[in-house]
UniProtKB/TrEMBL annotation:
Protein name: Probable nicotinate-nucleotide adenylyltransferase
Function: Catalyzes the reversible adenylation of nicotinate mononucleotide (NaMN) to nicotinic acid adenine dinucleotide (NaAD).
One annotated GO molecular function: nucleotidyltransferase activity
CDD domains: NMNAT
Enzymatic class: transferase
E.C. no: 2.7.7.18
Lineage, top ranks: Bacteria, Pseudomonadati, Bacteroidota, Chitinophagia, Chitinophagales
Length: 187
């Protein structure tokens, strides 16, 4: 089976992430997409990060009932910060019969040369890039650029809306919105 690994902070998961994961799961040669919650992105400050268990739970709520999408907390038991190359090595050893690919937005791809051992990643794993407004890229390293509508949604905007008391309806699934508001996250 071919599995797309969609790594992210998911702080919180939003409709953009879900549209991307669903697009890949149904329009490429990949069979499933795992949304891998990274406790700590090595290139981002952790100050505005909601606890990883809460972020993971929100991803679980978001993919509930969708058989091709799965929430993964595999990085919770690995050293911090979460270096993708280390997670890939761990997964390839743990699931030797699976074929793994990577899914990322074009903003992440623009930074890939700053990732630990990025040449190993680009040489050994297929990469699917979803274009993001304001982040035009040249295809390099044989990456596949997905032909799909641009989505101007970010976790940053959702956190800011919650802080400002604005609605996040439709920007996140209803059950995710309800859980965020009930628990007072991002206030
Ligand atoms: N609207 C979007 N279009 C394309 N790719 C996206 C979009 N939102 C997120 N991604 C991609 O999804 C992955 C995980 O993103 P992440 O969890 O950091 O969300 P984010 O919205 O970028 O968060 P933040 O606003 O906190 O930086 C990254 O590879 C990112 O490029
Ligand atoms: O391995 C690295 O050096 C590396 C550097 C920056 C980001 N990443 C990973 O890229 C993923 C996307 O990060 P984010 O915070 O933009 O959602 C997340 O899983 C990070 O751990 C990985």
């Amino acid at each position: 089976m071919k599995i797309g690994l969609y790594f992210g902070s998911f702080n919180p998961i939003h409709t953009g992430h879900l549209i991307i994961a669903n697009h890949v799961a149904y329009n490429t040669d990949l069979d499933k997409v795992w949304l891998v919650v990274s406790p700590h992105n090595p290139l981002k400050s952790s100050s505005s990060l909601l606890n990883e268990h809460h972020r993971f739970h929100l991803v679980e709520l978001a993919v509930e009932g969708e058989s091709r999408l799965r929430a993964s907390n595999i990085e919770f038991s690995l050293p911090r910060p979460s270096y993708t190359v280390d997670t890939l090595a761990y997964l390839s050893e743990k699931f030797p019969t699976q074929e793994f690919a990577i899914i990322m937005g074009s903003d992440s791809f623009q930074n890939i040369s700053r990732w630990k051992n990025y040449m190993h990643i680009v040489q050994h794993y297929p990469i699917y890039v979803y274009r993001r407004p304001g982040h035009e890229i040249e295809p390099m390293y044989g990456v596949k650029i997905l032909d799909a509508p641009l989505l101007d949604i970010s976790s940053t905007v959702i956190r800011q809306h919650v802080k400002d008391g604005k609605s996040i309806k439709y920007l996140v699934p209803d059950n995710v919105q309800q859980y965020i508001l009930e628990n007072g996250y991002y206030r």
